[in-house]
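hey can u check if this looks right to u? its 273 residues, i copy pasted from the old doc so theres a chance i mangled smth
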Amino acid sequence: QTCALPISGNGKTQMIEQACAETGREFVRFNFTKETDENDLFGGMRLVERNGVTVSEFQEGPVTLAMRRGAILLLDELDVGDTNRVMALQSVLEGKGVLLKSKNEFVKPALGFNIFATGNTKGTGSDSGSFIGTQILNAALRDRFAGMMFQDYPSAKVEEAILSNYFIDCMWISKGMSEDQIPADEGSAAGVFIEKLCEWSAQTRLLHKDQGIQEVVTTRTLINVLLGYSIFGDKAKAMAFACERYPDEIRNQFIEIFSKLQDEPESGITEPD
């Protein structure tokens, strides 16, 4: 896909998508599973129908497609891939290209080709179980990336901006209203709601850091609360649905924290007619 529009978000993938959008770079994203192999990455022979006849022909994989086009390639959740199978990427990560065995063709990267990878464990596996299914990646593979960056949760100001973009879209724009049609009192109430959500997430993250609670409220969880509110028009119900994925004890603790923060009357945000 080619990114042309700004991305709302502050996650690992969104950060790379945003950079591609701002620079006008073509962006190819590939998501890993445990079953991902060379054919998935580089392409292989596929059965296709041509003029009513089923034939076998070679179809490009995302890696070789990005290499030929000089695009940005994102290897999303690389540490979910099988440790041995992802080693097929070694020569690509070295900038040397790859041999397509099915075609006996060597593909070299075009000018501009770059690779990014995302993961939740730095390729060292997950002891906590929070990221079950991740693998310990070979140190030689990890060493072929020029650098590694930790993507922390956004600052309160950035997180508020992200949530505001999502809320305006799902609450009003997606239902036929423009931003300048949003009633001032509803916009103000929405701002207060979002501020409380960001305070809430910050407190849960402190608990995670200081007291070792295994769960944390992420930006995506906050977005789920807003989406739930846009559907049900009820904060408690939206919160309950978004927090149901947590273990019961932690869920109740998180909801209690938000209840203490939410000490003002109902926001007055209403559904558009």
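The longest strand covers residues 43-50.
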